[in-house]
UniProtKB/TrEMBL annotation:
InterPro entries: NST/OST, P-loop_NTPase. Coiled coil: none annotated. Keywords: Transferase. This is Sulfotransferase. 3'-phosphoadenylyl sulfate binds at residue 169. The keyword Ribonucleoprotein does not apply. Gene3D superfamilies: P-loop containing nucleotide triphosphate hydrolases (3.40.50.300). Residues 71-95 are annotated as: Disordered. The keyword Transferase applies. One of its GO terms (molecular function) is sulfotransferase activity. PANTHER family: BIFUNCTIONAL HEPARAN SULFATE N-DEACETYLASE_N-SULFOTRANSFERASE, HEPARAN SULFATE SULFOTRANSFERASE.
Amino acid sequence: MKLSKYKCRGAFIATVLAAALRLGLSVFIKEEVFMPNQPDAVPTLLIIGTAKGGTTDLFEQLTAGIVNLDPSRPDPPFPQKPSKEPGLLSRGGVDASEMLPKRPQYIEYLRLLSHPCSEATKGSFHECMATNATKQYTLDATPTYFFSAVAPQYLRQFSSLSKIIMMIRDPVERAEVLYRHFVLAEGQWPDQSIDDLATDFFKAIHTEEGVVPALQRAASCSYGDVVCLADSWRDISGFTFMDSLENKLFAAGLYRYALAVWRYHYFKPGRVLVVDSHAFFERRVDAMEKVIRFLYGRPMLHSERMLAASGGVWRKVVVTSLPKLTLSPPVRQQLSEFYEQHVMQGLFRMLSDMRDEGAWMFGFDGEPWNECPGFKEFNAARKSKL
Ligand SMILES: *[C@@H]1O[C@H](CO)[C@@H](O)[C@H](O)[C@H]1NC(C)=O
């Protein structure tokens, strides 16, 4: 499969890092710190995206019986056969005026997560949380959460200390593979090629009043201005064009804006791990070693290592050469330029800032990111116990 190429031109410089590197000084980053899992973190862990970024495979790696029920596992297990995508936090109908979740919604969420206290009566609920909640971990792997502007705020009302994993895949490739998934696995868009959908997406941006200025505003936020980026995404995701699956297919690739909302409202030091999907696909054992340390604060068990080493990363959709499933060179170019402006230009600045804020990182040290501004500085920084 052809990776889209980003020229990543432009003048982004991580000033301090670049200056220090020129002087030959080592740049130190903080050590990644394990944070204990809180009994009232519901769920314990969320995998918030991105679709086609490896979320299903990661979910399997964490919940498969061979690791989950391993007698030598020191941590509480996940429920057996949990549903992967409860989706409650980004469900339609949740708006700012009803941001405070009501008890029935909380209980419904516990049920969707197969939480040990979901069946507790009102009278025994607190006792159950004190005694039984710690006996099991819970996991919500809904890969559309990351681009929901309400999900992080809604989650904060339920649980302020859950851990989060975000997987990031090249945005052009992500859109293409997700389109294939919808066509081949779900029978969507029998008469529309991916070129048709991309062309309609760009039309929709220019048709709905206010979208172009909102995108321009987002692009002109300074890279480190989380509030500006988060506000911009809140505006963009409020437009009607974001209601259609077709447009979301492309708009959800705008990680840099969408994650700003999570950074602003939810992320906590030591409780966020950002995973490069491409590195996960190629080096799953290394990736899982990091995930296990992030999640449990320990080395991998034998069973976890065996599972991560066996088979390739599970992907639902086979690669195909049907022309409608592949972007034509001009449309690919148009999408690449769109993402280059809105994502790639500031991506490594975002990753560096998040790392400074205590997020864990895996990958982002090779293709397809190596031409992006800030790549070298990001990867040259060394770990220390500052
Ligand atoms: C805790 O779990 C046990 C066994 O699963 C159950 O019998 C007990 O009623 C639960 N306690 C509460 C307070 O719900």
